[in-house]
Write a structure and sequence with these properties.
The chain has about 170 residues and is mainly α. Helices cover about 85% and strands about 0% of the residues. The N and C termini lie far apart (about 70 Å).
């Protein structure tokens, strides 16, 4: 066999090997880029989910606070009309609205990734419940005032956590 033929064969084998290696490296690099892109998309989806959840939580907490203030007002009117505090029958619509508002907060708060925020919202909802279950006007008003003050801090914390996701 002629040496030029051997060199030709050798060149072909080396060229083919280099071509295969280059194709393999390109495929591997492309695969790694796809993985990084996919991870980035998942992270952005999670961030978008948290943003939406936090916005829903703001609305849900606001709805609870609005309803407990309305119920407290109804209790005040009934108490001033001579009824025993906390013993009035709420209209079905108001009672069901409160139940659904508390339920919505309970559901949405569990989707929040921030542990501290979850805990303080649950504490706030406990205070809201105590305001509704109070045995006297003084106790109810005091608990409602504390709950409303805490709610301002909660809304600030929700805003702080929300800004982290932008």
């Amino acid at each position: 066999m002629d040496s030029s033929a051997l060199w030709g064969l050798f060149g072909t084998v080396v060229g083919a090997s280099a071509s295969i290696a280059a194709a393999w490296l390109a495929a591997r690099s492309s695969h790694n880029l796809e993985i990084v892109k996919s991870q980035g998309e998942r992270i952005e989806q999670a961030r978008a989910f948290q943003r939406q959840t936090l916005l829903e939580l703001q609305e849900a907490v606001h709805d609870v606070l609005r309803l407990i203030c309305h119920i407290h007002h109804e209790d005040l009117l009934a108490h001033r009309a001579g009824q025993e505090w906390g013993k009035i029958m709420l209209p079905d619509e108001m009672s069901e609205g409160a139940r659904l508002a508390f339920r919505r907060v309970s559901i949405v708060v569990e989707r929040v990734a921030d542990d501290h925020l979850r805990e303080i919202v649950k504490h706030l909802m406990g205070g809201a419940t105590q305001a509704l279950l109070a045995k006297s006007e003084l106790e109810a008003s005091s608990q409602l005032d504390m709950t409303m003050q805490q709610s301002e801090l909660i809304f600030q914390e929700i805003g702080t956590v929300l800004r982290r996701y932008y």
